[in-house]
Amino acid sequence: MSEPRKLYVRSFGCQMNVYDAQRMTDTLAKEGFVETDTAEDADLVILNTCHIREKAAEKVYSELGRLRVAQEEAGRRQMVAVAGCVAQAEGAEILKRARGVDLVVGPQSYHKLPELVADAERRGSNRRAGIVETEFPVEDKFDFLAPPSRQAIARRGPTAFVTVQEGCDKFCTFCVVPYTRGAEVSRPVAKILDEVARLADGGVREVTLIGQNVNAYHGADAGGRPAGLAELVRKVAEVPGIARVRYTTSHPRDMDDELIAAHRELPALMPYLHLPVQSGSNRILAAMNRKHDRELFFATVERVRAARPDIAFSSDFIVGFPGETDEDFADTMDLVERVGFAGAFSFKYSSRPGTPAATMEVQLPEEVKSQRIYALQALLDRQKAAFDAACRGRRFEILLEKPGRFPGQLIGRSPYLQSVVVEAPREAIGTLATVEVRAVSTKSLSGDIIGGEFFAGGAGVEPRLVGQSETVEA
Ligand code: 5AD
Ligand code: SF4
């Protein structure tokens, strides 16, 4: 029998790409490909790319260059595929710009990978005839992508992403997503529940429902009527084995009353909400076509806080959007001061071809963007540090996910996605533990386990407590 072929997938960008990488791996596993964790010994390398900012998009070309040099030095030929949003946006251009690419495949065509790879293999070294597949097919790719095997689920650990919605109809003027991922599509409730049940059966305890506009979810329920995200979250939380649910990424306009009520009523729904606002200036929000003002954002934050007082927020910000003045930027800083974030992602505006903002008149110089991002990130870092510091002495549940750096340690996640280092045996991975937080550093918290599923005799194990854990250095 011939050796199994080896597959290496490198993902850039968002969590949807992480999910897609798993689906591609599962689908190619059926064709005899086994995963490897280095590009060097792979027969097929897939670069799963991101187009959101110029820097992210350019990475694919440096990566392709590196791959080619490595192949030449090793004197071997690998098949190279470019997937993801750069594949969708640039298509055949990639074949012109980079040598050594056999296949370019957009996110809506991943279910065709087996035939595309077979086709590319038949063409062999005739790389000038690289294959490009960037259609938005009529069939639903999710119906054809293979589910993960039990071993794959176990290997990936007790948390999982599940795509429930893809694409975007909002058309923010800076953003490529409506073009790379297409129009908004929601998966039917039953199919998502099947997928979650399968994951739970394999040991998954926490699912993050993902979509570019996840709180605009409106998938069909059993009767064919559209269900909102609140209903979906409730049903997912009821799947046996599932202890925690999260969802991301949301738009402030789509935080409806039902979803906010779910935060009040569902203990499994984690009290940490990623709610991108992008800017605190009404003028800039309008130019971005965000379809809401800062007042709506403040009101939304208050509504969610009223429903779930222990909730914490994270957000996305863009500085240096075309025409952003010092006053506009001061409004962003003011919004951050007023809301207080437990975490955030912030970016310098990056002009993206084909988006309306790219042709707006007043593009800002790089040093203005740099000054602003520096000030904003300093403020956001202070807020994050203050939030983390306030966790010292608190007790909360963590989901034990993986071994820590030192023997006897495990790393879990708090409800707020903070990494928490504890002393616990490996067998406790996949269980919830109650922890009292003892120490806080910039990267993680550490604490003592004072109870939990494993430690209180859950899963047939004798009750036991573990001792003092060490403070982790930053
Ligand atoms: N420039 C900079 N940041 C961007 N984002 C999206 N498009 C751009 C762009 N053109 C950021 C937004 C979004 C996050 C995923 O990436 O903050 O929420
Ligand atoms: Fe990047 Fe957006 Fe594509 Fe995700 S969907 S990979 S963030 S461009």
Automatic annotation (TrEMBL):
Boundaries of every Radical SAM core domain copy: 154-389
UniProt catalytic activity: N(6)-dimethylallyladenosine(37) in tRNA + (sulfur carrier)-SH + AH2 + 2 S-adenosyl-L-methionine = 2-methylsulfanyl-N(6)-dimethylallyladenosine(37) in tRNA + (sulfur carrier)-H + 5'-deoxyadenosine + L-methionine + A + S-adenosyl-L-homocysteine + 2 H(+)
Q: Which Pfam families match?
A: Radical_SAM, TRAM, UPF0004
Compartments where located: Cytoplasm
Q: What cellular-component terms does GO give this entry?
A: cytosol
Per UniProt, where does [4Fe-4S] cluster 1 bind?
14, 50, 85
Check the record and name the InterPro entries matching this protein.
Answer: Elp3/MiaA/NifB-like_rSAM (IPR006638), Methylthiotransferase (IPR005839), Methylthiotransferase_CS (IPR020612), Methylthiotransferase_N (IPR013848), Methylthiotransferase_N_sf (IPR038135), MiaB_methiolase (IPR006463), rSAM (IPR007197), rSAM_horseshoe (IPR023404)
Chief site of localization: cytoplasm
Instruction: Give the record's cofactor note, including how many are bound.
Output: Binds 2 [4Fe-4S] clusters. One cluster is coordinated with 3 cysteines and an exchangeable S-adenosyl-L-methionine.
**Every MTTase N-terminal domain range:** 5-122
Which class of enzymes does this protein belong to?
Answer: transferase
Looking up PANTHER family in the UniProt record yields: CDK5 REGULATORY SUBUNIT-ASSOCIATED PROTEIN 1 (PTHR43020), MITOCHONDRIAL TRNA METHYLTHIOTRANSFERASE CDK5RAP1 (PTHR43020:SF2)
- Record-linked NCBIfam families: miaB-methiolase, MiaB/RimO family radical SAM methylthiotransferase
* HAMAP family hit by this protein: tRNA_metthiotr_MiaB
* Protein name (Swiss-Prot/TrEMBL): tRNA-2-methylthio-N(6)-dimethylallyladenosine synthase
Gene label = miaB
